[in-house]
Amino acid sequence: MKVQVCIIGGGPSGLLLSQLLHLRGIDTVVLEKYSREHVLARIRAGVLEHGFAKLMREAQCGERMDREGEIHHGFNIAHDGRVDRVDLLKYSGGNSVMVYGQTEVTRDLYEARDRLGGKVIHNAEDVTPHDIASDAPYVTYRSGEETVRVDCDYVVGADGFHGVSRKSIPKHVLREYEKVYPFGWLGILSRTKPVSSEVVYVKHERGFALCSLRSQVLSRYYIQVPLSDKPENWSDDAFWTELKRRLPSELAARLITGPSIEKSIAPLGSFVAEPMRYGRLFLAGDAAHRVPPTGARGLNTAASDVYYLYHALIDHYRKGDDSGLDSYSEKALARVWKAQRFSWWMTMLLHRFPDRVSYDDRLQETEMSYLFSSETAMRLVAENYVGLPF
Ligand SMILES: Cc1cc2nc3c(=O)[nH]c(=O)nc-3n(C[C@H](O)[C@H](O)[C@H](O)COP(=O)(O)OP(=O)(O)OC[C@H]3O[C@@H](n4cnc5c(N)ncnc54)[C@H](O)[C@@H]3O)c2cc1C
Predict the structure, then answer these.
(1) Distance CA 188, CA 260 (A)
(2) Which of 225, 237, 313, 381 gives 229 a disulfide partner, CB atoms 3.0 to 4.6 angstroms apart?
């Protein structure tokens, strides 16, 4: 097979890039390790920056998102028994976020790829990039007994944190930056009315909690737990009891509980790999970086990589201009590190660290009271939460 761009990974980054390039006449193939059902069973992000929503529309995938997604003009932080609101609309200069689940984003992207007859190959085993430092890279994968070769101009590694693409960059070239947090988030999804129509982050002495939502009938709740905990050791009842303990009494009284339809623990960690380009291989999304979900930046940062790469490839094929490709890594990383900074700040502000000392507690309290007493601080948070410009 011969294509212009071979994309490894059929998650949101890979699918969005292939859809955008296809619409501009650039031939792509997406090689995904798992079945579509498997990819669509993942419950992950839910808050989309306005820039991401715009990109989905540009990819002709925004119709259902605009119909079923919810525009949120603010979010809340519960602390010290009360709830304070960050007014995104007011402090970001008129922007907001879209609440629409990553599962739905991925489903819409698959459907759009099907409509255009896009090439998406599932259950592609042993996907391996070759000769990425040369002018003639290719990718091989196994389909049953057969090994298939895909010749291409460029390879895009959009295969997530555990993928093969980043590992194919020589060790002496790659610099990796990592921070592992000493706790995880136990999350459940339930078909219940959310406790609040907007997202509520909770700072509590028993640990962080998050009241999030996918729609007005589908709730996503999380609580901070030690890394040693297992989801199977948390009954639904135990989860709801612990969540209620961490909520201000007025919210706890309103909480509607129900059976969980998904329950999992996500460890919290940050990671950045530099550079995001090696020869003819470009990394995008979680293949190059990840953040703790506290600031809702993971999927959104993946989208900004896609935006830069999409424009760089268009310039290459349409105008023979490679400046976008040459500056891709630097440009993407500048925004990636800002997302890292914001996610780190939100994580430090809201979590209970097992090794904290009383000095850390006082700093956290001061940070919180400063945030809600300063319009400048509020602006800073709102600007980051709705998404810095691409
Ligand atoms: C448990 C969890 C919860 C999260 N919650 C949030 C949240 O609340 N908010 C937020 O903003 N972000 C969240 N994130 C992060 C967000 O989901 C990711 O940033 C987003 O999925 C990145 O998209 P991606 O396409 O780059 O990578 P992925 O979604 O990881 O997609 C990569 C794809 O590549 C495929 N693949 C992997 N290896 C190979 C291979 N060798 N060959 C071919 N294909 C391969 C995978 O199967 C996958 O489909 C969460 C992540 C996790 C893991």
Answers:
(1) 6
(2) 225
Q: What is the pLDDT of residue 148?
A: 98
Write the pLDDT tens digit of every residue in 138-161. Answer: 999 999 999 999 999 999 999 999
pLDDT tens readout for residues 363-389: 999 999 999 999 999 999 999 999 999
Query: Which atom belonging to ligand 1 lies closest to the Cα atom of 299?
Result: 19
Q: Does residue 181 contact residue 269 with C-beta atoms inside 8 Å?
A: yes
Hey, whose CA ends up nearest to atom 3 of ligand 1? 44
Q: How many whole angstroms from 11 Cα to the centroid of ligand 1?
A: 6
Q: What is the pTM of this model?
A: 0.96
Q: Which atom belonging to ligand 1 lies closest to the Cα atom of 285?
A: 26
Structure tokens at 25: 């006449």
What is the whole-number distance in angstroms between the Cα of residue 286 and the centre of ligand 1?
6
Q: What separation in Å is there between the alpha carbon of 250 and the centre of ligand 1?
A: 35
CA–CA gap between residue 328 and residue 156 (Å, rounded): 12
The H-assigned helical ranges of 165-267 are: 236-246, 249-254
Tokens representing 150 are 């895909």
pLDDT at 45: 85
User: For a substitution probing ligand 1, which of 299, 301, 335, 386 has the most ligand atoms within 8 Å of its CB?
Assistant: 299
Q: pLDDT at residue 5 above 90? A: yes
Give distance in angstroms: CA of 161 to centre of ligand 1. Answer: 7
Q: How far apart are the first and last CA of the chain?
A: 33
Q: What is the mean pLDDT of residues 18-29?
A: 98
Cβ–Cβ under 8 Å, residues 19 and 118: yes
CA separation, residue 231 to residues 43, 138, 238, 240, 322 (Å): 15, 41, 11, 13, 48
Nearest to 309 by CA among 338, 290, 288, 291: 288
